[in-house]
Predict the structure.
Amino acid sequence: MQDHRKHPFRDSSQDREAATHTPDTPQTRAPSYKLAFADEDFMCREDLRPVRLQLELLKPDLLMNEAGINSTIVLFGGARIPDPVNKDKARTQTLVELTKYYDEARKFAQIMTAKSLAKGGKDDVIVTGGGPGVMEAGNRGAFEAGGKSIGLNIVLPHEQAPNEYVTPELCFNFHYFGIRKMHFLMRASAICVFPGGFGTLDELFEALTLIQTGRMARVPFLLFGQAFWEKIINWDALADAGTISTDDLELFRFVETADEAVAALDGWEGKGEKRGVIPGR
């Protein structure tokens, strides 16, 4: 990136380049001689964790600002839910049945990206975790609609590469889960959660907790697949036990299809709406 500020000091990128051409001596080969910001071993020291946290917060934020991204629609969902054409590779019969949500995520992203492009393409940009499964479907739908989309990848012990549909200049990689989740929500105008595993549940409950506690503004919150979510989470039992309030059950709604989700977003009125009630149904 070019720094267009005017100042009398020599640019850091110039010195980084010049440092690669210094004479080869024992002194210049010593780790201590490396420029601090260009020294990868130094940047990975445990003492530098606060700096790394700050950098992971800054880099994506700066690049998204420069790209003019004003707001996003967040798609959370399982990496193991394949494209229906590949459902024979699904590990379980349940995953085979859940492949329909790949198609719904893809269609939903297509519709919302088309709506975004009609407004200039800077608002309601699709953001996913950048990986396979539902994440791929979201980025794919945005790509097929002719728009950009964001991918927030995370380095995992097993290989995970960005899916091919993420817009390259909006594809980011993270070391810290916590900072990655901040970026999911910092620009969120709506949150859509598809069936998934531990990672999806983590993202779902962090976002709900932030809204429930007033740490984040309330935004439309949609859960795709009522049967799936009610099977794995007994929402009413939480309310009956008093560990959440009955009003907390109104923070989200269930939908089944992309069209229902679009209708829910268009008709979202905030407080007082009942979960599972879709306008026009």
Notes: The domain at 47-266 is CATH 3.40.50.450 (Rossmann fold). Residues 100-118 form the longest helix (19 residues). The first strand starts at residue 72 and ends at 76.
